[in-house]
Amino acid sequence: MFDTVVIRTNELCLKGGNRAFFENRLLEDARGRLRDIPGLKYRRDQGKIVIQRDGVLNDDETAAIRTALSTVFGIGNWSFAAGCAKDLDVVAQTTARALADRQGSFKIESRREDKSYPLESIQLSQEIAKRLLPLVPHLTVDVHEPDTTITVSVLKDGMRVQAGREEGLGGLPAGSAGRLACLLSGGIDSPVAAWRMMRRGCRAVLVHCHSYPYVSDASIQKVRRLAERLAEFQGETLLYLVPISEAQQAIVAKAPEPLRVVLYRRFMLRAAEEIARRNKAHGTVTGDSVGQVASQTLENLRAVSAVATLPIHRPLVANDKEETVAIAKRIGTYATSIEAQDDCCSLFMPRAPELRATAEECAAAEELYDVPGLLRAALEKAEKVEFRRRK
Length: 391
Ligand code: ATP
Ligand code: MG
Known about the structure:
single chain; about 400 residues; alpha/beta; VC0802-like; Rossmann fold; nine-stranded mixed sheet; 13 helices; 15 strands; elongated; binds adenosine-5'-triphosphate; binds magnesium ion
């Protein structure tokens, strides 16, 4: 019965003069995903995005809209709605149809966008309720904690009836901020870290370091599937696959054993920064969280950060694992992340990793092998893969 989708933006009201820019981004994102549904018209309307059609959306279309909007960043919440004539009986009938498959209680809220409408909002709600109640005997009214809130908007050229609200992902529209190079391991944390930055409007360029052919290509396969999933949110997504086994072998042969993992990480960060530069990205992202594993002590994070020339963003730095796992499940990366894999970092793992490395001892160790040469070679052999949203 619905012919309208009303999208309320998240936070965008804070953006002053840039508001149009953010809203247009969001509108274009929604339009791109819904292009297979014929006849939709889009407009920005007082901080909302309204999608409308002459003609009711069928079940397949409403399902497709629901699926599409569930991966759009920048939506606070959204609703299906139905337009109807400015006639109280018609509004009541339309509302009854909107409530047909609902259970429990409801309340009506009215909004007058057309200020010349003769009834005040409260009167209007009461008049509609009076006509509606006989049509929905399966429901009760509860103005304090209703299961469904019906919003009736008085527009210039008609009424709009909206049933309930669906939560959006929040954040800012995809690609409304600049690019970041995200170090993606195939574990649970890094896809969530990338996603969190993507949700703030950053475009994630993904970087995975692997030791193929010294380990199986399982981590590459996993990371490809993670990239595919992340592309559902941000659209076009680049993944760089960087072979680091030569660097690892040099580190194993030349550097003190306890420093290996920190030295791998410093190497990875340098690779990510180079890829960031090539893509005009403003920084890097990792899934580190303080104290989670040996490589993530404050000291080791500092020793890794010491090689950075761009800002490193660590959106999970203060997360408990459970919090990150909950997000991973919600965004659909968890099942892939927990598949067993040979990790490039488990290759030549030190028996007793250093918990308190210093930047100075790492730099001294790096004098023993050719960091710039190995980096150049790794980046030359790096493979670039492109992912698109499935629809
Ligand atoms: P994750 O679940 O993201 O793998 P983790 O808790 O296992 O995190 P580490 O393995 O210490 O932690 O990795 C810390 C961060 O370093 C990762 O979140 C990721 O950003 C980066 N990283 C680790 N391994 C790789 C890799 N092979 N390629 C790219 N980045 C990596
Ligand atoms: Mg890991």
